[in-house]
Design a protein that fits this description.
Layout lengths: L1 E6 L2 E3 L5 E9 L3 E10 L6 E6 L5 E3 L7 E6 L4 E6 L8 E14 L2 E8 L3 E5 L2
Parallel strand pairs: 2-11
Antiparallel strand pairs: 1-3, 3-8, 4-5, 4-9, 5-6, 7-8, 9-10, 9-11
């Protein structure tokens, strides 16, 4: 019922920019925290950036001064603006979102959902 679809990945030269988008679709009540993770060959999946329902953000040290994360509450979309890309950024980027599909007593229960991933390759 709930799915996350990423878009915007591709091939870019070092120093270039890329903007990733992730859209939550299906039947749900609300979206809480959202974030981006990446996984390169031979490495475990790592956190890139997160944005909370309260608009607080967090970044991995390796991307803190180059990437920006934002969201559109009305469209349930999260973006990752990647600037000054370097070859080490090459990885499959995954979107994650906490999604509530049912209403509990006086609260909502949020469950993490993941997208299928989009390939980002930084090479000259």
């Amino acid at each position: 019922q709930v799915q996350l679809v990423e878009s915007g990945g591709g091939l870019v030269q070092p120093g270039g920019s890329l903007r990733l988008s992730c859209t939550v679709s299906g039947t749900f009540l609300s979206v809480n925290d959202m974030g981006w993770y990446r996984q390169a060959p031979g490495y475990e999946r790592e956190l890139v950036a997160t944005i909370s329902a309260g608009m607080s953000t967090d970044f991995a040290d390796s991307v803190r001064d180059r990437f920006r994360i934002s969201r559109d509450y009305g469209k349930n979309v999260v973006y990752l603006q990647m600037n000054r890309l370097i070859p080490e950024d090459t990885a499959v980027y995954f979107c994650k979102a906490g999604v509530a599909t049912t209403q509990g007593m006086n609260h909502m229960t949020f469950t993490d959902y993941w997208g299928q991933g989009t390939q980002v390759t930084v090479s000259s």
